[in-house]
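Module 6 notes. Inverse folding takes a fixed backbone as the condition and produces residue identities as the prediction. Think of it as a translation problem where the source language is geometry and the target language is the twenty amino acids. Below is one complete input and output pair. Work through it position by position during the lab.
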C-alpha cells in the first residue's frame, strides 16, 4: 500500500516548550487517519507541520515519499483546512471565494465549483456574502475549498467543529468518499463516535506524544456470538481459515473475521458442529471509553515521574 503522508521522529519546540515529541506515523493511499486528544495535545501543531505553516525542530515530514520541506511543490497536491473555520473574504460570496481559490490553484472549471457547492449543500447560499454565513456554513465552505482540486492528500483540523448533526454527517461522508477515490485523509477531531465508524486508524495524542494507535478496520470486523457451548465454539472457530482471532467471554465467543462476507460461514460452522446460536452481533468498539482509559493511564504514569 502506497504511503502518501509520513512523519519520522517529528518534534517541535516553541522556546523551551516541547509541543510535539518524537512523533512518527504513516497515512496510506485510501485511508482516513484521525488524531484525537485533549486540547493542547498537539493536534493542530502536527497539521501545521504537515501543511507548511510551521517547520519541525527535528525530524522530517514526507509527502509521496519525499521530504516536503526540501520540495515544497509537493503541497500543490494537498487540500487543507487548518485551524478552522477556514479564512475567507467576508465581503465575497461563497461562490466568489471558491472562484478565487480556483484561480490560485489553476485547472479548476466552473462545473467543479458548482459540484463542490452542491456536495456541501451550499448551492442555495452561493450568492450570499460569507459574512452572513453561520459557523457551520463556513466550515462546510472550508471543506469545499479543500476538496476543490480533488487532491491526493486531504488534511483537516477539526473540520466539523460547531456543526449540527446533519452537517457533521455530510462532512464525514465527503471525507469517506475522498479516501474511497484514493486520497490519503488526515484529520484532527473530537467527534469520536463518528470517526470510529469510518476511520482506518486513530492516533491518540497526549502532550505531543503518540500514546496509542488503534486499527479501527480490525475492530469493525469483530463480532460476538452467544452460543450453547462457548468452549466448543471457540475450538471450532479457531480452526477456520476465515477467522483471524477468537476468544471465549462468558457464554459468548468473540471473533475477528478476515472479511465481513465470511460471517455466513460462521453460522454454517456452528450448525455443522451442533452448536446452538442464540445471538450474533457486531462487537462494537467503544472508542470514547478506550480513549478515556488511555489518557488516564498516560496521566497517571506522568504523575509518577
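Target side of the pair, the amino acids:
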Amino acid at each position: 500500500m502506497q504511503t502518501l503522508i509520513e512523519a519520522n521522529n517529528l518534534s517541535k519546540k516553541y522556546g523551551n516548550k516541547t509541543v510535539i515529541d518524537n512523533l512518527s506515523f504513516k497515512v496510506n493511499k485510501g485511508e482516513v487517519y484521525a488524531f484525537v486528544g485533549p486540547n493542547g495535545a498537539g493536534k493542530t501543531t502536527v497539521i501545521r507541520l504537515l501543511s507548511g505553516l510551521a517547520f519541525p525542530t527535528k525530524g522530517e515530514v514526507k509527502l509521496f515519499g519525499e521530504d516536503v520541506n526540501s520540495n515544497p511543490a509537493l503541497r500543490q497536491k494537498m487540500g487543507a483546512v487548518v485551524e478552522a473555520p477556514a479564512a475567507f473574504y467576508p465581503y465575497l460570496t461563497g461562490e466568489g471565494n471558491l472562484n478565487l481559490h480556483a484561480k490560485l490553484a489553476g485547472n479548476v472549471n466552473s462545473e467543479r465549483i458548482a459540484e463542490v457547492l452542491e456536495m456541501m449543500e451550499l448551492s442555495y447560499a452561493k450568492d450570499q456574502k460569507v459574512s452572513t454565513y453561520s459557523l457551520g456554513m463556513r466550515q462546510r465552505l472550508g471543506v469545499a475549498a479543500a476538496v476543490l482540486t480533488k487532491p491526493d492528500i486531504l488534511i483537516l483540523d477539526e473540520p466539523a467543529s460547531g456543526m449540527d448533526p446533519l452537517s457533521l454527517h455530510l462532512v464525514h461522508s465527503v471525507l469517506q468518499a475522498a479516501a474511497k477515490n484514493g486520497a490519503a485523509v488526515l484529520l484532527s477531531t473530537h467527534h469520536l463516535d463518528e470517526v470510529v465508524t469510518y476511520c482506518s486508524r486513530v492516533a491518540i495524542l497526549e502532550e505531543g506524544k503518540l500514546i496509542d494507535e488503534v486499527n479501527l478496520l480490525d475492530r469493525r470486523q469483530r463480532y460476538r456470538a452467544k452460543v450453547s457451548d462457548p468452549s466448543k465454539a471457540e475450538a471450532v472457530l479457531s480452526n477456520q481459515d476465515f477467522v483471524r482471532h477468537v476468544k471465549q467471554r462468558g457464554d459468548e465467543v468473540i471473533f475477528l473475521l478476515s472479511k465481513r462476507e465470511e460471517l455466513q460461514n460462521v453460522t454454517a460452522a456452528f450448525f455443522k458442529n451442533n452448536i446452538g446460536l442464540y445471538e450474533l452481533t457486531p462487537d462494537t468498539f467503544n472508542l470514547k471509553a478506550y480513549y478515556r482509559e488511555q489518557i488516564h493511564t498516560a496521566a497517571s504514569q506522568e504523575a509518577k515521574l
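Reference fact for the lab report: Residues 3-218 form a domain with the Rossmann fold fold (CATH 3.40.50.300).
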